[in-house]
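Hey, can you fold this?
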Amino acid sequence: MTDQKVFRFLIYAVLTFTLIYLLNLTGFVFKPIGTLLAAIAVPVIGAGFLYYITNPFVNLLEKIKVPRLLAIIIVFLLIIVVIVISVYFIIPPIQDQINSLAESGPDIQQWIEEMINIWRNGQEFIPESVQNAIDNMVDNIGQYTEQMATSVFSFLGAFFSFLFSFILIPFFLFFMLKDREKFIPFITNFFSESKAESLTRLLKNINETLGSFIQGQALVSLSVGIMLLIGYLIVGLDYALIFAVFALFMNLIPYLGPWLSAIPAVVVGFFQDPMTGVWTAVVMIVAQQIESNLIEPNIMGKVLKIHPLTVVIIILAAGAIIGFVGLIFAVPAYAVIKTIVTHFYQAYKKTRPVGKKNIW
């Protein structure tokens, strides 16, 4: 019986859950480690994201006989140019639109309340539970608005509190680009030759998975942001730049992000003019159809190979457990875990004795 995979699987499962339970009991021991990891998480994750975005440009410059160090310097100069352009030409109009939108907040709130009342008065029969939910929502719209504003300012406060960590990102990025080929040999140097070869393949697969996902998702998000900005400007939507930039960042959350970013744009569009709201919704639907049918399949379709329903379930579960951070990192984390499991499963199949029956 001990030779059967079912028995071994149950033993491994029990040991795994026992280990998790013990780690939970002794969590205070690992708290300093968690604090240390949290302190370096921002520069490492930020530099890692920029690494996968900029590394193709460095490789392209190397192909045309540009020394790698000079190629890295050129990429850093391009990043500085992008930052300067953003500071002088993009951030000021966004700030002006945010201030204008904040001033219009009470009017938008009142309009939402009126629309809900009009809809409610036009209904002959509304279940009591629905009626109570609507009344509660209408009575607390002001409170929800204040909570949203508080959340935004809390986010901004946290952002500026981590600003120092962002200063370290260029240093991490420089050494990631410069010494990228030294990382895997450094890790595999501690293992035997056979295990080092297997670990090298695994790390290369993880690197390829992360690189393809981040580069693809960034390109998809940028494409959607540009399409929405053009569409919003054509239909005359107020605060078009804000909603386009918001959609660009929300699109980093696969499948759910684009639709979540559409809600405030459509609401403001209807507040501005009913037809503007309709055309805003049309622009959003057209942009999403182009993305899901043309852009994303060609860029992301061959990378993840994950069913859309699986992605949505992963995002919802991670968001409920971790919060907003889980929404962003759930899919790439799942892709990495899937790569690791696939690697070890294939290694197991190669080492399984020939002719042994599979009891599954």
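Oh, and this one too while you're at it.
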Amino acid sequence: MAVKKKRAFQEIASKGLKTIILEHDSWMKPYMPKTVWYREDRLLAMLDTFGTVFVKPDKGGGGVGIIRVKKVADELVECKSLKHHKIVPKDKVIALIDTYLKPNKRYLIQQGIRLATINGRPFDIRLMLQRIDHKWELTGLAAKLAAPGKIVTNFCKGGKPYTAKDAVAKVFPNNVSKKMEELKKLAYRVAHVLSNRFKGLRELGIDAGLDINGNIWVFEVNTRPTYGMFRELKNLQMYNNIRRIRKLIV
């Protein structure tokens, strides 16, 4: 019996490229935080507009290299990363950030979103999609609660996996079904838009969040997502299904 050959598996490393493609889709655009390529004047302008922004490496994962830049007073700015935490006068913030950035990397500036919280801990939601042939399947859906004091929710940086529906129910108890359906619809739209451009995509890990008003935002899309966080949920059905499909497509 002939063994069925696996299709090509494509990965897109650039966060900026994926963001640009999603922003060009009129349906997706309202879900996308303002994101631009890093430039000093843009950082100051976005900081004035939004109060909080994130500086992110264009390539990389695990929250490494991300800096939260936040106005804490009229002329004081807090810069916080996984390794550093300083408050400086506004006119010194660019010089400080320059010491954090690696000269051989490109960076993005993303609008800061005030996420909904559980027990004071911000959370976002990972939506995992996979496909063996042409049809995408939403195989994983779980919340990630940021570890105390952390600026990222990543599981590898102490983020706590949490059942997505329970997380949404804690902050928006009257809109659980509506928000869950919106998240799922959003996930399939992301898959549709990106796979129209990149035919070899087989997996997507979408990081989305709900702000304090219940609006949904897409922060990042990974094309080779890790899935260990699903093993930490009480129900292992999603983890086992993701693992089974991963073996078929990688």
